[in-house]
Amino acid sequence: MRIKITSSALDDLYEGRSFYEKQGEGLGEYFFDSLFSDIDSLTLYGGIHLKVFGYHRMLSKRFPYAVYYKLEDALVVVVWRVLDLRRDPKKIKRLLKSG
């Protein structure tokens, strides 16, 4: 499978990296690498995750984040958002509706 990442998802990743870098030097890069590793795993496991708010949701292995994605067809995974799960679920739902 191929992976496409939307600009909204990239913005989410950069925002998370910035937040974690403020917590400790190098933590932002670790966050970034960890989330991209999780996203890369979708080449094998895309489509197996539960649907939440109309999107497949994969939980990050190391951070309280979720990758929300859809299958464009049998060969393409489109990552829509990468969101912090400590947010209010209503806000997460609103962010997913806005794209």
Oligomerization state:
single chain
Note the main sheet.
5 strands, mixed
Total number of helices: 4
What share of residues are in beta strands?
25-35%
Q: Which descriptor suits the 3D outline?
A: globular
The value of Rg in angstroms is: 13 Å
Strand order of the largest sheet: 1-5-4-3-2
What is the helix content? 40-55%
Helix/strand-derived category reads alpha+beta
CATH superfamily: RelE-like
Care to count the β-strands?
5
* Uncertain residue ranges: none
Mean pLDDT: 95
What fold name stands as the CATH topology?
YaeB-like fold
Protein architecture, described:
- This protein is 45% helix and 29% strand.
- It has 4 helices and 5 strands; from the N terminus they run βαααββββα.
- It is globular.
- It has helices spanning 7-23, 27-40, 42-45, 89-98; strands spanning 2-5, 51-52, 55-59, 65-73, 76-84.
- Helix 1 runs antiparallel to helix 2 (27-40).
- It has 99 residues and is α+β, with helices and mostly antiparallel strands.
